[in-house]
Amino acid sequence: MKYFSTRDKSRALTALADAAFMGLAADGGLFLPERVPQVDMKRVEELAAKSYADMTLYLVQLLFDELPAEALEQVVRDAYDFPIRMHSLDDKLHTLELFHGPTHAFKDFGARFMGRMTGLLNDGGDLIILTATSGDTGSAVAHGFYGVEGVRVVILYPDGKVSPLQEAQMTTLGGNIYPLKVRGRFDDCQRMVKSMFRDAALRSQVRITSANSINLLRWLPQAFYYFYGYCQWKQITGRDNPTVVVPSGNYGNLTAGMFARRMGLPIAGFVAASNANDVVPEFLLTEQYRARASVQTVANAMDVGDPSNFARILALYENNHEAICSEISGATYSDEQIRETVKKAYEETGYLLDPHGACGYQALEEGLREDEVGVFLETAHPAKFLDTVEGIIGEKVEIPAKLQAFMKGTKQSIPMAKDFASFKEFLLKE
User: Fold this and answer.
1) Given a cut of 90, is residue 267 above it in pLDDT?
2) Which parts of 31-135 fold into alpha helices (H)?
3) pTM for the model
4) What are the extents of the domains in the chain?
5) Cα–Cα distances in Å, from 167 out to 212, 259, 337?
6) Would you state the pLDDT for residue 367?
7) What's the CA gap between 385 and 304, in Å, rounded?
């Protein structure tokens, strides 16, 4: 399998290792696979009944067919040693819990896979893994790459705009992990990462790539859990073609689901559930894309004002707004609505949502017709947003042991201005 840039209409192709270590294409576009392999859903269901790793190995071999099967099996079984669960709130509302990995966020799926694939593909030279984060990506990448030989991880996160637990997860490891506390917003962090890719002189001096979902090795693995979730949902409901609601920030998660659908996964359509940073829902309604500075919300992992993966959405639909809207709808919720939903769901069902999952829950509840059932993604454990969630429900929230351990560590981060010059100086010094 080779890859083309979303900005290249001629579709010139790039090999896997080159695309992975470049992060962004030379023209600034994002990489997409040259073809969409078609799955045997009967085979998927049979393997999903065994384990997530068994099912994923089948899909991985379709996408990365140039790599030895035994090497891919080692990557998959090492990356996915944690559960994924479907939880039913009632007969109509179901949630796919993606927060049972080591950092209790869905980004463990992409980060752990990428970490192990990078180790497999790297020729042994020094490599910097760079990521901007609004919360969960940084911690997942830090743990996914911790201790990987020949790799240093540089994480940019906005000072004061991630939860204390999220900050602890990415600042207490040490070793090959370098957290940078940026005086700005997530968009500033993401802009600095993108500027690095456009700086040819810098990239000639430093071997560097990104672990944000702009990188195909971070992005593609997110397609796999849609298949597994579908199998669990079908087993529970006996139905096909669910509507899937995806809490959306940088839109890698949703775009991966769209790619899974093209591989043959029977999904009726998607809802992009957004907080106040609603540039994509606005685009769906108006056909106008207006990037803007992000707004801080209680669902901080979705505080993105110019989502990178929007380019993949446009490319998958060949810039056809009508076609996009035939498969995706949008829903937007204020902080007040998010808080109300967390409280309501907890009181009525006993299920505790995180603020991002609350957007998904509300969108699904509002959007389903009488004869429909659907599923929303729960992307993070509610304890990662402890102050917010406890303040809403008025009760103490049990903190998983893994998260408690993070809070006991010593935070170490490097203050960083939000200008690219300061960031570049840091990279060249290190």
Assistant:
1) yes
2) 41-48, 52-63, 69-79, 107-121
3) 0.90
4) 83-104+219-398
5) 17, 31, 26
6) 82
7) 18
Please answer whether residues 219 and 271 qualify as being in contact, where contact means their C-beta atoms are separated by less than 8 angstroms. no
Decide the pairing of beta strands 269-274 and 177-182.
unpaired
Return phi, psi of residue 331, to 5°.
-145, 140
- Alpha-carbon span 207 to 128, nearest angstrom: 6
CA distances from 325 to 120, 176, 282, 283, 285 (A): 39, 43, 12, 10, 9
Express each pLDDT in 352-379 by its tens digit: 999 999 999 999 999 877 777 899 999 9
State which CATH number among 3.60.15.10, 3.40.50.620, 2.30.30.230, 3.40.50.1100 fits the domain covering 83-104+219-398.
3.40.50.1100
pLDDT given at position 430 = 63
Measured CA to CA, the distance from residue 316 to residue 215 in angstroms comes to 16
Is 107 catalytic? The answer is yes
Of 83, 135, 73, 148, nearest to 109 by C-alpha is: 83
Q: Which of 42, 107, 384, 418 is catalytic?
A: 107
H helix runs in 209-309, sequence order: 216-219, 224-237, 252-262, 279-286
Region of residue 241 (left: phi > 0; alpha: psi -120 to 50; beta: else): left
Mind listing the pLDDT tens digit for each residue in 89-125? 988 899 999 999 999 999 999 999 999 998 888 876 7
Place 47 in a pLDDT band, splitting at 50, 70 and 90. Answer: very high
